[in-house]
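Lecture 7, part B: from sequences to assemblies.

Below are the input chains for today's worked example.
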Amino acid sequence: MEFEAVIGLEVHTELATKTKIYCGCTTEFGGKPNTHVCPICMGLPGSLPQLNKKVVEYGMKAGLALNCSINQVSRMDRKNYFYPDCPKNYQITQDEKPLCHDGYIDIELENGETKRIGIERIHIEEDAGKLLHTKFGTLVDYNRAGVPLAEIVSKPDLRSPREAVLYFERLKSILQASKISDCKMEQGSLRCDANISVREKGSEKFGIRTEIKNMNSFKALEKALKYEFKRQVEAVKNGKKLTVETRRWDETKGITEVMRSKEEANDYRYFPEGDLVAINIPDEWIEEIKNDIPELPHEKVERFIKEYEIPKYDAEVVVLSMDMGNFFEETAKKSGDPKAASNWIMGDISKLMNEDVIRVEELKFTPMHLAKLIKLINEKTISKAIGKKVLEEMYKTGEMPDKIVKDKGLVQNSDEGAILEVVKKVLQDNTSSIEDYKNGKTKVIGFLVGQVMKATKGKANPQIVNKLLNEEIKKL
Ligand code: ADP
Ligand code: MG
Ligand code: ZN
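Predicted structure of the full complex, as structure tokens:
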């Protein structure tokens, strides 16, 4: 019997607003406990919530970027539960009328095929506070209480842990590129609950599902789902009954564990939030937000492959950050050599940036500089090896490459007469290499080229060096 997984993800993302969803407190991460709070987000009696318009805007933006329809009249609801991280004893969220519904994300499978994953709904809600378990007992920090969230619920369309990761990755790249969320997974601003069941391949019926709570890395998601898939398949094979339950992923043990089963599940007694009016969204507002969504990373990748004829690999690497993508595009246009642009960005520039841990906007040079450098090499004013040195200098100082070349006297030497002198000298000094060459070890040419380049401080035109060396060695 062969089994397949059925997976649906519920992703929570903190929206990039400056203030909280129902009050004016800051959403900034961290801070001394209970300093980003007020009577509203602490749930004090008599305080009244006010809906932050920006939250609706970001929520809609997420919906539109994810191909959803917008409910032009939507509503906030109370979800009742008792837990110290939620001081009102209810969360203001959306139940029956979420902001967005019926969207999708196209993911690219490893075999190159595209698969469409449905999105059931997106609703906006408030985050809860955080419990701190200390030696003085359990304390609570409400700085996070009231930070706006969008919950993005997928349809159960995913069929393997790998697909779930591909979906989650693409979702992150879309949210990040459209600046809906900073998506800092290590700070919890993007996290996911994964629902999984198993069934015999070919069967239409869904099995009993479990929900794995709060994963905040792609690795954890994949590992937890793989574990849970195996566990459920074993159970079914052994005739054991699975139960609907919520589980937790234990990273160190590498297993999922039961948190609560259905019998203990809360009855949230949802009802309309009486302190907030319905949300009415006019057509113009939707249009406005649509126009505000940038070209998304996967769209950019496709366009770069078509427009600039660079390999898919290159396009994916340069688009890893939106700013880098833009940097590439300008360099490609200005230099007329897109492949050289992506090579420089993926190679030497990324290396320098990684060493100093800096971002594109912190670079001292612009696409104009890089384009000029590419031109200097293509016009054979400097060699590629010298180009690397010029890049380093340009990276340090932000000087134009032609100025660096002039100031440092780095212009490539294509004077055959002068190079011939050096070639002859190198051959004289390396008689054993000539022996090797005559004995069929033609690889020594590489070594000899290196010696000539060294003697000319990298300035000799390598093509000419190669040509002359081959000619001269044959004469000996
Ligand atoms: P709840 O709010 O109780 O968690 P939902 O109906 O909102 O329930 O479903 C939550 C998630 O579970 C969705 O992403 C959905 O795709 C997924 N899901 C539903 N049924 C199954 C199933 N049998 N196997 C796997 N995932 C499922
Ligand atoms: Mg759920
Ligand atoms: Zn507040």
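Note for the exam: Residues 20, 23, 25, 37-38, 40-41, 146 surround zinc ion (ligand 3) (CB under 6 Å). Keep this in mind when comparing with the next example.
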